[in-house]
Write a structure and sequence with these properties.
Arginase, Chain A, 12 helices, about 15% strand
Length: about 325
């Protein structure tokens, strides 16, 4: 049998697109949600590696909306264990506004970080533009601490506990974050890739029955089954807009070493691509966060490999097929 004939035994590749999809890129050069310098440069480092040209393909338009700029803030006198709270609140309020504006012109908003606290704004803006969401959180960490449970006070370890309705009820009100309107039901949230979960985070996830697939689950069940189950559980009726918040540290540090909180034993790039491939194939993907690329960590090879992994994940979000794409 010829090579061409052999290919006929593969499942048929279906072109899911009915229209030209418009993607809006929004940079969030914010790093004050954690303690390591450099992550604020992640968005521009990814852009400068040819991001827009790489994402363009038949049936896909990409527009760069530039970087979020937030107003100067005055130090706050507050009792909350949230470092740089005034900066977190001011930046991500603007992220929410800008993400909402991008989604009024685009099918998909891609928020480039920056640290993972940016998802407070991107998810809030997405919900304001599109209504109730399903949220897939791909990460080594649960990011579900509260000010009372956080060992570091870093905001990038807290966004899920603010975005999930049941977890948010565990917090005292935080006035600087009063603009945050999104409170997703816990049943609309699923994790993939967990392997570093703090003690109180585990209690919260179990108490509120949040879907969480750890790396043990990926090893036991396989990434295809885990991804299918996660997408089904957060949107059983297959009708909600999908937001994928992808932390580059979900990948094993051998794949993406230039990140602030690496944890060995993570997803391969191939597994990460599968997650994003399947998110795209739902036909409901309308927002993506790509966060925690830090170009000041590691040598040039580390940085290059990490940025390349990030771009490959974003290519999958734009529908690039590893089998090749149909011309329009």
């Amino acid at each position: 049998m010829s090579k061409l004939g052999a290919a006929h035994s593969l499942p048929k590749i279906v072109n899911l697109q009915k229209k030209v999809l418009k993607y809006g890129i929004l940079g969030v050069p914010f790093g004050k949600g954690q303690k390591k310098d450099g992550v604020q440069d992640g968005a521009d480092a990814i852009r400068n590696s040819g991001l827009l040209a790489r994402l363009q393909r038949p049936g896909c338009e990409v527009k760069d909306y530039g970087n979020v700029v937030w107003p100067e803030v005055q130090p706050l006198q507050h009792k909350f264990n949230i470092n740089n709270l005034e900066h977190v609140a001011a930046c991500h309020k603007e992220v929410s506004r800008r993400a909402r504006a991008v989604l009024h012109e685009s099918d998909v908003c891609v928020a480039l970080g920056g640290d993972h606290s940016l998802s407070l704004g991107s998810v809030d803006g997405h919900a304001a533009a599109r209504g109730e969401l399903a949220l897939l959180w791909v990460d080594a960490h649960a990011d579900a601490n509260t000010p009372d449970t956080s060992p570091s006070g870093s905001a990038h370890g807290m966004p899920v506990s603010l975005l999930a309705r049941e977890l948010a009820a565990c917090w005292a009100p935080v006035p600087p974050l009063g603009w945050l309107a999104t409170r997703l039901p816990a049943k609309n949230i699923a994790y993939i890739g967990l392997r570093s979960v703090d003690e109180y985070e585990r209690i919260l996830l179990e108490k509120f029955n949040i879907t969480a697939f750890t790396m043990e689950d990926v090893e036991r069940l396989g990434i295809a089954s885990v991804t299918a189950m996660a997408l089904q559980m957060i949107d059983p009726k297959l009708e909600l807009p999908l937001h994928v918040s992808f932390d580059i540290d979900s990948l094993d540090p051998l794949e993406a070493p230039s990140t602030g909180t690496p944890v060995r034993g993570g997803l391969t790039l191939r597994e990460g691509l599968h997650v994003m491939d399947e998110a795209f194939r739902t036909g409901r993907l309308s927002a993506v966060d790509l966060v925690e690329v830090n170009p000041k960590i590691g040598d040039q090879r580390d940085v290059t490999n990490t940025i390349e992994a990030a771009i490959k994940i974003l290519e999958a979000a734009c529908g690039h097929s590893r089998r090749g794409n149909y011309p329009q």
